[in-house]
Amino acid sequence: MADARRLLPLALGLAALSALFLGWSLRAPVEFILTLRATKLAALVVVGAAIGAATVIFQTITANRLLTPGIVGFDALFVFLQTGAVLFFGSAETSTLPTTLRFGLEAGCLVLAALALFGLLLRRGAGDILRVVLTGVILGIFLRGLTAFAQRLLDPSEFAIVQQLTFASFNAVDRATLAIATVLLGLALAAALALAPRLDAVALGRQTARSIGLHHDRVVLAALALVALLVALSTALVGPVTFLGLIAASLAYRATGAWRHVVLIPAAALIGAAILVGGQFIFERLLGLQSTLAVVVEFLGGLLFLILLLRRSRP
Question: Which domains does the chain have, with CATH numbers?
Answer without folding.
Answer: 2-310 (1.10.3470.10)
